[in-house]
Amino acid sequence: MAEDANGASGAEMKERLATELRGAMKSRERVRLGALRLLSAAVKNREVELGHTLSGEEFMEMARREVKRRKEAVAAYEAAGRVDRVEQEQEEQRVLEAFLPAGLSEEEVARLVDEAIVATGAKGPGDTGKVMGHVMRRAKGRADGRTVQEMVRRRLVG
Question: The pTM is what?
Answer without folding.
Answer: 0.69
